[in-house]
Amino acid sequence: MQPKIQVKNVTKVFGDHPERALELLDEGLGRKEILQRTGQTVGIQNVCFDVAQGEILVVMGLSGCGKSTLIRCLNRLIEPTSGEVVIDGEDILKLSNEKVLERRRRKFGMVFQNFALFPHRTILDNAGFGLEIGGADKATRDAKATEALKLVGLDGWEQSYPSQLSGGMQQRVGLARALAVDPDILLMDEAFSALDPLIRRDMQDELLALQSRVKKTIVFITHDLDEALRLGDRIVLMKDGYVVQIGTPEDILTSPATRYVERFVEDVDKTQVLTAGALMHDPKIRVTPNDGPRTALHKMDQESFYSVFVTQRDGTLEGYVWAEDAAEAVKRKEKTLEGLIQRDHYAVKPDESLGTLFQMLVDTRIPLAVVDDHGKLLGTIVKTQVLAALADAQPDRENTNEEEGEPAQTQEAPDAKVGA
Ligand SMILES: Nc1ncnc2c1ncn2[C@@H]1O[C@H](COP(=O)(O)OP(=O)(O)OP(=O)(O)O)[C@@H](O)[C@H]1O
Ligand SMILES: [Mg+2]
């Protein structure tokens, strides 16, 4: 499918002589030197990425790295110096001003930090403002604004004035204003940054809930890594005007591309971000209830496993069987595994966080089963993998382990090995 947004080599130079800066950029000079030599400020340089329809792409980086410049280039509120911005297959940098204005109104909604509401307009009129600019009549405006306010949880506040609303609620009006025009694309620049932490988390949750219903394409800017990790399907990490890394939250955490990214992610509690889906491995072996004990035993033997998960033919997880029990059943000449299946295993969904998994692994002698919504076995997680991920997440702890005498792995019971 064609990406909703394609950003191709976009560069923005602020100043009267961008061509000088472009030359020096080509020669490989950095932002600082270019400013010293030419007086031109490189806002962003050679930025490339795609945004898929329905995706939340988060752009993050420190203050001044070019986030706002980038997001404003997407709807030409800032005119890029070079490059292409392709929206739905159309390079909007090639459009006439008139057309750009039309596209901007129809396709984009914007939400900023400290969203300025009109103090003397009602909440309803504030939410309908984008439609008003677009020339919609009062009845249409009110109908759509009412609906948008409902989406952000503000029904009942239509006739109030901004001063009567808390900061968080005002920010929701900003979101409603953007949603009221029913844009395909939402551009959100530090939209939640001015809110206090608890309200900010609520807003993040609500945005995710909203997104699962309305399926917009969202470019969300933040300088907060936790926010980026919570919201982003993918994250674009920027530094000094260029892109350092693009990847899923897990990519960024588990394989930071540079020392810069590494420093960014050092403080994050990875146990909250790494998920079962990221940690699981294919179950190497599995059996069905109708398999014989000898078959099961043979499969376990081959992998030196002490137990094996049992699934139906369609993959639905039933339970597991101990190698010991299978061996006994062979002696008793039993034909199937039916009577041997244990069901006290943990089954988790792929989005379960490492923190929770760790608790379960402490409790169980067999691996965790990762299942989909229909209960089908997707993969397994063994203790050693989780410990490795945790050790990786907390490099400072390495020394502590040594003091305790034994490396973590040897404490793992041998029976913890199953189909991993
Ligand atoms: N209109 C402008 N004229 C000149 N320089 C500008 C202009 N707008 C931005 N810049 C410069 O471009 C660079 C990137 O600025 P930008 O506002 O995009 O950063 P940002 O990542 O959004 O920062 P923040 O997190 O503080 O909002 C900065 O060096 C800034 O000074
Ligand atoms: Mg900014």
Automatic annotation (TrEMBL):
Annotated stretches, region: Disordered: 392-420
Gene Ontology MF: a single term: ABC-type quaternary ammonium compound transporting activity
UniProt KW keywords: Amino-acid transport, ATP-binding, CBS domain, Cell inner membrane, Cell membrane, Membrane, Nucleotide-binding, Transport
Enzyme Commission no: 7.6.2.9
GO biological process assignments: amino acid transport; glycine betaine transport; response to osmotic stress
Record-linked Pfam families: ABC_tran, CBS
Residue intervals of the ABC transporter domain: 5-265
Membrane topology category: Peripheral membrane protein
GO CC, one annotated term: plasma membrane
Compartments, record wording: Cell inner membrane
CBS domain location: 280-337, 341-398
Primary location group: membrane
Swiss-Prot/TrEMBL catalytic activity: a quaternary ammonium(out) + ATP + H2O = a quaternary ammonium(in) + ADP + phosphate + H(+)
Gene3D superfamilies reported for this sequence: CBS-domain, P-loop containing nucleotide triphosphate hydrolases
InterPro entries: AAA+_ATPase, ABC_osmolyte_uptake_ATP-bind, ABC_transporter-like_ATP-bd, ABC_transporter-like_CS, CBS_dom, CBS_dom_sf, Gly-betaine_transp_ATP-bd, P-loop_NTPase
Family per record: Belongs to the ABC transporter superfamily.
Subunit structure: The complex is probably composed of two ATP-binding proteins, two transmembrane proteins and a solute-binding protein.
NCBIfam families in UniProt: proV
Protein name (Swiss-Prot/TrEMBL): Quaternary amine transport ATP-binding protein
Organism whose genome encodes this protein: Ectothiorhodospira marina
Taxonomic placement: Bacteria, Pseudomonadati, Pseudomonadota, Gammaproteobacteria, Chromatiales
